[in-house]
Amino acid sequence: MNCTICPRRCFIPAGKTGFCGVRRNGNGNIGKSDNSPKIDDNIGIYSITYGKNTGLVVDPVEKKPLYHFYPSSSTLSLGSIGCNLDCKFCQNFSISRLSDDSFLRESSPKDVVDTARTKGCRSIAFTYNEPIIWLEYVIDIAKEAHKAGLFTIAVTNGYISQEWREKFFDYIDAANVDLKSFSNDFYREYCSASIEPVKETLLYLAKKSKDKTRGINRNDNSSRKTWFEVTTLLIPELNDSDREIEELSDWFFSNLGAEIPLHFSAFRPADRMLSIPPTPAKTLFRARDIALARGLKFTYTGNIDDQAGQSTFCPQCKQSIISRDRFNVTEYLIDEDQCCKYCGQTIAGEFES
Length: 353
Ligand code: SF4
Description:
This protein is an alpha/beta fold. It is built from 8 helices and 15 strands. The protein has 2 domains: 256 residues, TIM Barrel (Alpha-Beta Barrel), CATH 3.20.20; 43 residues, no CATH class. Iron/sulfur cluster binds next to loops.
């Protein structure tokens, strides 16, 4: 059988799993967890990690990173094992390469939502490993979360097939999408993938993602698209040239718009790239300057100490309107209409007064 969830479209013999290590051909038998949903055209292939996670952790939403989605709110984070990419620099390689699920904890969708509410979280984040490969569990949790007035967040590589893209993001209120590089050669050599499906996901989020009324706690009860931000991990000499950052910024500006936040994050030696040094702070400063000069309004640095690069400035009056110290919001100057308190400029994103 062929799995259709992501562009790999793995052919999976009976009893085996695909490239990601967690989607199995049950040979017509859904497997021990018959609570694993039988998703229409994918019947017979199921996720062996349905209902299981690496633990439930409360994080600030800034850690995802999402800087324009209910700043300083808490999100209940959960992840699982496996991945549909094979990045040689994976910063979470201790779980992304596993196919042994024996250490995972079991939590029903309702357990996850109850925990989020008990801990005072505003949202639930599917993160740490790639949520696309366990999307049945994501969707079931999202349904419960929305009933309870909680938002959902996906931290994702965006490597999903066209037929599943809409079904997945229909349940997601905010996403941070990794754009690993702006070069297809990089995707091929370092991630065993291609860039095109990721660009299609970004274009879908920018232009086609459906309006939906999601959280029931919204003040205005309005419907919104999935909010999204983008992160690029800069690796010394592999994807950090001026030219590549200029090309990325120009494509971003023309196709996603000037108001979508772009985060440049520092690489730390990991996985099969232990001999590459950590990204110097000056590389991130340079990248941020280039993106701002190319017209992007909200560009950030991550994984380094840089208060200016992690604060939000009003694109109109240039005042600092959200100051951050690492993941803590230390100043917040956005009014109840989502506008800058200094000059009244509307700030892109979703905010509370
Ligand atoms: S989700 Fe997993 S099994 Fe399905 S196509 Fe992608 S890598 Fe293959």
